[in-house]
Structure formats: structure tokens, C-alpha cells
Amino acid sequence: MHDNLFNIVIFADVIEHLIEREAALVEITRILKPRGMLLLSSPNENPRHVWDKCHVREFTPDSLRSLLTPHFSEVTLHAWWPMHWYYRWAAGALWQRFIGWVSRMGYNPFCKLAPQSSLAHGQLIAVCRK
To answer: Most CB within 10 Å of its CB: which of 46, 47, 117, 129?
Structure first.
């Protein structure tokens, strides 16, 4: 694959499964055009909740920023997937039906993007510029 090929690379819920994360980021920066953008999502590490036993590493906002900063000139982190709604959904069928109903009415409580990431959110979104 040629260098400087893509304007945008989407890396959705992949980085936490990789052993060779640095090599993947080097390859992404190689194929991105100058000022190209990486959109990356990863579960927010939470000591109260293990997302997936197949994850090699889950990231905190600080550890994800530390991983990405050497490879990109700009790194902005956001959070989404409010955990209080996740815990309600996981509580059982009644909450699942309620959340399904409000989602069909046009409000999805899981899709609220937050400018600051914390343990209150289950997912991290990184917007990185080469």
C-alpha cells in the first residue's frame, strides 16, 4: 500500500485487541495523507467492569493519549456511552424495554458525546490529526 493514501482512517474498537499497537499506529500514520485524520474508539478502562476478556489492554484517557501523542500532531479525546444507562440496561428486561422504547422515540441515551472523559463513560473516542 502506498504512503499518504487516505484522508481518514477509522479504527473502531481494534486497538485494545492488539499486542503490537505501536506498529499499527506507525502504519496508520504512513498511509494517512498530510493532515489526515484517525478516528479511533476504545473502551474506557474501568476497574468495576471488564468489557471483554479478549482485550489485551484497555485504556484510560491518559494512557490512550500517551499512546497516540507521539504519532499525531493533534489528539482530542471525547467520551460517550454513559455508564449509568449501561448499568440500568444490564439490570434486566424492564430497563431494556424502556431504553428500547425511548430509542425508538428518537432519544438514544447511549449516544451522548461528552467533552471530558471519566469513569462515568464506557467508551473513548480519539480524533487524531497527522
So the answer is: 117
Residues 55-74 as b or e (16 or more Cβ within 10 Å = b): beebbebeebbebbeebbee
State the pTM of this model: 0.82
Q: How far apart are CA 111 and CA 80, in angstroms?
A: 6
pLDDT tens, N- to C-terminus, the chain (130 residues) = 899 999 999 999 999 999 999 999 999 999 999 999 999 999 998 877 778 889 999 999 999 999 999 999 999 998 887 888 888 888 889 989 998 898 898 888 777 777 666 678 888 999 999 9
Query: What is the side-by-side order of every strand in the sheet holding 6-12?
Result: 6-12, 32-43, 121-129, 74-82
Asked if 75 and 68 count as a contact pair (C-beta separation under 8 A), the reply is yes
Give the domains, in start order, of the chain with CATH numbers. 6-82+111-129 (3.40.50.150)
**Coil/strand/helix, residue 27:** helix
- Rounded CA-CA distance 44/15 in Å is 12
